[in-house]
Amino acid sequence: MTLLLLRRLARFVHARALAGGLVLALTAFALAPSARADLVWTPDGGWQVEGGVLGPLFGDMGASKSALEAMNKAKTAQEEGRYWSALSQYDQVISNFPGSIFAPEALFQESLVYIERHQFEKAYDTLDRIVKRYPEYPNFNGIIRQQFRVADLMSTERPYLMGWIPFFKDPSSAIDFYEGVAKNAPATEYAPMALMKIALLDMRLSGLLDNGENAAKAIDALKRLINDYPQSMLASNAYLEISDIYAKLVIGPAYDQGSTRQAVRYLEDYLYYYKDSPDAPLAEKKRNDLLDTYSRSQVLLGDFYYYYRNSNRAALIFYNQAVTLAPNSPAAALARTQIDKIRRRVPAPMTPYDMLFGRYNDHALSAAQEQGQIGKLAAQAFATPTSQDFVEAPGGQVVETIGASGEAQTYQSFEPYLGSPGVPPPPSTNPSSALPAQIPVQGAPAPASSSADRPLIR
After folding, report:
1. Rounded to the nearest 5°, which phi and psi values hold at 83?
2. Distance of CA 200 to the CA centre of its chain
3. Residues 6+ apart with CB under 8 A from 41
4. pTM of the full predicted structure?
5. Angstrom distance (rounded) from CA 216 to CA 201
6. Bridge partners, residue 398, by sequence
7. With helix as H, strand as E and coil as C, how does the chain read?
8. CA–CA distance, 114 with 157 (Å, rounded to integer)
9. Quick one: which of 94, 98, 99, 55 has its CA closest to 71?
10. What is the mean pLDDT of residues 32-43?
């Protein structure tokens, strides 16, 4: 009996010693994060654990041998095209050894299998599991690169249901994948690339039946690219793409010019930051064409008041604005012709209404009310949500006042000038003659010292 007790005591002490050694080994690994084991695949030797304290540690454990065996069987089946068998073996590794270095590698290999089977959604989700569960995975950049590849495939290739039934293409899911790439790796070069891909896909999805939602999403992605990655080589293209999107929304001079103004804004920004770019001459031509459209819209408004409302005062406001917006455009030449007619007191041709009832004159409005209406129209025409230094009313009087907050505020009155086009008028000496509507003159911001200092685009 005594001998039996001594033997059991010896076994207990030996077991405690072994356990203590294991604890010391794990502690040493925890205190040495640089000692990391890597999985290496070779066709001849299969998967091998190399490097760090985990290599010999896992080599002595039965569990690691079972994981290596399953990984080798899975990789062999994967190389031979037996994808079901490979996925089954990888699933066993992920389930039985979730905390080992084999689990993230098994997930990565599963994603490759899903890509081969055109199961792009499963491939992306599998890669995303590595990002969320194993952020210390040594091949993290490879994970992001693979997610970007899956998004590319989803945008162009046809997915397969269950890996063998061809299904409809789904570019909208690719947009979600690109968003995931930008979120998972915001500090890599893949983030701006993903944002550009999102914009291009949204524009491809926009069409006649689209209510503008896709165009808005594309613009949002491009603005994020410009704001968050101003040093990216894609930033210059983002300016051009935004201007093209807005330009496509321009119907013509007879319609609202909000999109025209925005397109001009981004072309102006591009020409400032990238004036030496090979695309600068083309961008300048696009800007001039858009400004001509914008200027022509003012000519149309001036024609309306000149020909149909017998109001030379209102017509001059819009003709002068047309000249200011694009002085060298064909629309500006038309505006100058009309201004010259008004200066020479040439009356507009009689309309059928005028022939029957006399020249149009709204007797219901007093002179003050008429001036108020013209000022309101001018405010709507000249207010531009851009950073450009458009002159709001040619020949108007500029007045500087101090606001309630103590800041200087510059205003420009809309007193029309009946002199020759291109010749500045003398300063107004009759402040009471200015129209009631006072519009802040929007000045362009000071040039940024570098692309990183540019103001955020809202």
Report:
1. -70, -35
2. 10
3. 47, 48, 75
4. 0.66
5. 12
6. 412
7. CHHHHHHHHHHHHHHHHHHHHHHHHHHHHHHCCCCCCEEEEECCCEEEEECCCHHHHHHCCHHHHHHHHHHHHHHHHHHCCCHHHHHHHHHHHHHHCCCCCHHHHHHHHHHHHHHHCCCHHHHHHHHHHHHHHCCCCCCHHHHHHHHHHHHHHHHHCCCEECCCEECCCCHHHHHHHHHHHHHHCCCCCHHHHHHHHHHHHHHHHCCCCCCCHHHHHHHHHHHHHHHHCCCCCCHHHHHHHHHHHHHHCCCCCCCCCHHHHHHHHHHHHHHHHCCCCCCHHHHHHHHHHHHHHHHHHHHHHHHHHHHHCCCHHHHHHHHHHHHHHCCCCHHHHHHHHHHHHHHCCCCCCCCHHHHHHCCCCCCCCCHHHHHHHHHHHHHHHHCCCCCCCCCCCCCCCEEEEECCCCCEEEEECCCCCCCCCCCCCCCCCCHHHCCCCCEECCCCCCCCCCHHHCCCCC
8. 14
9. 94
10. 53
Q: In what order do the strands lie in the sheet with 408-412?
A: 398-402, 408-412, 439-440
Are 180 and 195 in contact, with CB atoms under 8 Å apart? no
Cβ neighbours, 10 Å, residue 96: 14
pLDDT tens digits, residue range 389-427?
333 333 334 444 444 444 444 444 333 333 434 444 444
- Alpha carbon distance 196, 175 (integer Å): 10
Would you state the structure tokens that stand for residue 273, as one six-digit string? 């930051």
Contact between 113 and 146 under an 8 Å Cβ cutoff? The reply is no
> What are the pLDDT digits (tens) for 85-107?
999 999 999 999 888 889 999 99
Structure tokens at 236: 């210059």
pLDDT at residue 334, rounded to an integer: 95
pLDDT tens, 345-394? 998 887 787 777 777 775 445 566 666 666 666 565 555 544 333 333 33
Please, are residues 421 and 413 in contact by the beta-carbon 8 Å criterion?
A: no
Distances (CA, A) of 199 to 176, 237, 277, 278: 12, 11, 22, 23
Residue-level pLDDT at 166: 81
Instruction: Using CB atoms within 10 Å of the CB of residue 75, give its burial: 0 to 12 exposed, 13 to 18 middle, 19+ buried.
Output: buried
Single out the residue of 313, 317, 299 nearest to residue 379, CA to CA: 317
- DSSP lists the bridge partners of residue 401 as 409
Report whether 305 contacts 318 (CB < 8 A): yes
Q: In the prediction, which pLDDT does 49 show?
A: 63
Reference 327, options 287, 303, 292, 281; nearest CA is 292
- By the 8 A CB rule, do 74 and 86 touch? yes
